[in-house]
Amino acid sequence: MSVILVESLSKRFSRKGQWTEALRNINLELDSGTFVSLIGPSGCGKSTLLRIIGGLETADAGKVSIGGMTPLEAQASKVFGFVPQAPALFPWRTIIENMQLPQEVNRKGGAAYESNREDETELLRAVGLGDFTNAYPKELSGGMQQRVGIARAFASGAPILLMDEPFSALDEITREKISHQLMSIWEKHQKTVVFVTHNIREAVFLSDKVVVMSSRPGRITEIVDINLPHPRTKMEENDPIFHDYVHQIRALLQERWD
């Protein structure tokens, strides 16, 4: 079942009287419960596409449907959970209180919302932070704070998670550890995830599909189905098939860049 449908979408920006074409004729159909990564050169419009899907920006042409709703209707119905590049935790609230924030904000969702919620403490344990529920953000490293942001998005009950390069500020080892934790949580909860990244190995490891985009104006040049088994562990990264996918996507990116 298609939960996200993007048809003939285009977007331009104006800066100092000059128009820049960010996205051109984007067509994309994503099924419910899939993990999809958007990858492409810097400035190709990946984050802009994510924000249009989430109703944070509007397109100049084309249409986006979220389960039959417009992005703004889906946003009002609490369909989306967002994970930005920075974790956006309130410093005066403990970690568990930050985790509970979506519940407080979305309380008007009533019984339907409550039935979709996940246990905050269990999710903190799943990302290795079970001992930090009463800590404050300043007591956590950047990587730990980002793990809170990811766990909070899953705890929100939102069926679609939009992640905009959430690991971009992390070192390679921390990034790898958190990506494995994210995979483990996703395999359990099966949310629909749209994930923006520049990291090819990360995209292959996490995704069911990798959407390869060209340099500006951003266009979809290829959608690569990642047929690796679940559950995925570090062992999959040693599989020759994994490396074949990495090489394939790198070649596609290099071709479009050239």
UniProtKB/TrEMBL annotation:
<dbReference type="InterPro" id="IPR003439">
    <property type="entry name" value="ABC_transporter-like_ATP-bd"/>
</dbReference>
<dbReference type="Pfam" id="PF00005">
    <property type="entry name" value="ABC_tran"/>
</dbReference>
<dbReference type="InterPro" id="IPR027417">
    <property type="entry name" value="P-loop_NTPase"/>
</dbReference>
<dbReference type="InterPro" id="IPR003593">
    <property type="entry name" value="AAA+_ATPase"/>
</dbReference>
<dbReference type="GO" id="GO:0016887">
    <property type="term" value="F:ATP hydrolysis activity"/>
</dbReference>
<keyword id="KW-0067">ATP-binding</keyword>
<protein>
    <submittedName>
        <fullName>ABC transporter ATP-binding protein</fullName>
    </submittedName>
</protein>
<dbReference type="InterPro" id="IPR017871">
    <property type="entry name" value="ABC_transporter-like_CS"/>
</dbReference>
<keyword id="KW-0547">Nucleotide-binding</keyword>
<dbReference type="InterPro" id="IPR050166">
    <property type="entry name" value="ABC_transporter_ATP-bind"/>
</dbReference>
<keyword id="KW-0813">Transport</keyword>
<dbReference type="GO" id="GO:0005524">
    <property type="term" value="F:ATP binding"/>
</dbReference>
<feature type="domain" description="ABC transporter">
    <location>
        <begin position="4"/>
        <end position="240"/>
    </location>
</feature>
